[in-house]
Design brief:
about 100 residues, mainly alpha, three-stranded mixed β-sheet, elongated, binds calcium ion
């Protein structure tokens, strides 16, 4: 009897875990790195842009830097247009601050 009860509790915990992953916001889900054709496409997967590790959004004047971008050096490298290592790679970091398609 005890064994059955424990199994049921375990199953409930497992389904709670699965339900938890399903409700994560889209930008929290891990995505396979790829090159996007433009920022509109990239911002669909990464609404605030993608930065290489340690990068800071460079801003002019009084505007505040974007800080809530996704940090992923590999995804950034797929979209910085520098090495053209990847098929369809475009320069989506025109100001070369290490953050591609930064957006508030
Ligand atoms: Ca940039």
């Amino acid at each position: 009897m005890m064994m059955i009860k424990r199994a049921l509790v375990g199953m409930a915990a497992a389904s709670a875990l699965l339900a938890g992953t399903a409700v994560l916001p889209a930008d929290a889900a891990p995505k396979k790195p790829k090159s996007y054709k433009n920022c509109t496409a990239l911002n669909k997967d990464y609404p605030h842009g993608v930065a290489k590790k340690g990068a800071k959004d460079k801003v002019k004047g009084k505007s505040k830097p974007v800080k809530n971008f996704k940090v992923s050096t590999i995804v950034y490298q797929y979209n910085d247009g520098k090495a053209k290592k990847y098929k369809g790679e475009k320069d989506l970091d025109r100001d070369n601050d290490g953050v591609a398609c930064e957006k508030r």
